[in-house]
Amino acid sequence: MRSIIRSLLYTFACAGVVSLLAGARENTALADTTASGYISADTTWTAANSPYSVTGNVIVRSGVTLTIEPGVTVKFDADKALQIDGGLIAKGTSASPITFTGGKDASTGTTAKWAYILFSDSSTDATYSTSSGDYASGSIMEYCTVEYAGGTSVSDNGAIRMNNAHPFINYCTIRNNSAPGIYAYNIAGTLKITNSTITDNKGTGVSFSHSGGATTISGNTIKNNTASSGGGIFTSWGTVTLTNNTISSNTSSSYGGGIYAASVVSHK
What we know:
Layout: H1 2-30, E1 33-39, E2 43-45, E3 52-60, E4 65-68, E5 73-76, E6 82-84, E7 87-91, E8 98-102, E9 117-119, E10 127-128, E11 135-137, E12 140-142, E13 144-147, E14 160-163, E15 168-170, E16 173-175, E17 182-187, E18 190-194, E19 197-199, E20 206-210, E21 214-218, E22 221-223, E23 226-229, E24 233-236, E25 239-243, E26 246-248, E27 251-255, E28 259-262, E29 266-267
Parallel strand pairs: 1-3, 2-4, 3-5, 3-6, 4-7, 5-8, 6-9, 7-12, 8-13, 9-14, 12-15, 13-16, 14-17, 15-18, 16-19, 17-20, 18-21, 19-22, 20-24, 21-25, 22-26, 23-27, 24-28, 25-29
Antiparallel strand pairs: 10-11
């Protein structure tokens, strides 16, 4: 009888340890990695430490690169932003995309409206092969989802903002933002936005103005965006190449529900 009791006590004790260990693993999985302030050395946000909770503005300094691994989720508090003065390598995959979204508002339980991702004029531009035109190096967002941004009021607002900056945007989904999906201005180099879905934004799907640069918009689906001018695409000056895009169901309160081109030097 005593051996039976000892056996039962041992079994219960082991079960308790297993339960505690399972609880510890669960808590670890649910814990966010907090991000805020300046990134001053090359840094990688890993899938193992995902999700990342941006509680204060994050600024990647000039000359520094932030790399984000496939499968990472970045959750922003209300009105918080990611500013790239250096490089951003955010290359997800079709199976493991990278997600930039709002965190949960503790008071309402709704998704927070965060600010934007800004590529400043000191950020590292994408470069391309001179022979094939394929991406070679520099800032890139590939297989990324950007949603619920645009929650702050700034000039040249957008979920993804580019000030004389030229990252490569490829296979991204930019949706449900309270501002234009992409707002690029002072474009002086080569900007490519390809194979992406830009939908349901409260502003132009893609808006850009040039100061001598060239933009390629290719293979995208741009739909259900609303703006005062150019619901799908708004462009001014520069050279714009549009190929194999689906632009549909966009609306404008004044001009160009689908496309509005103002003072375009060359429109191919």
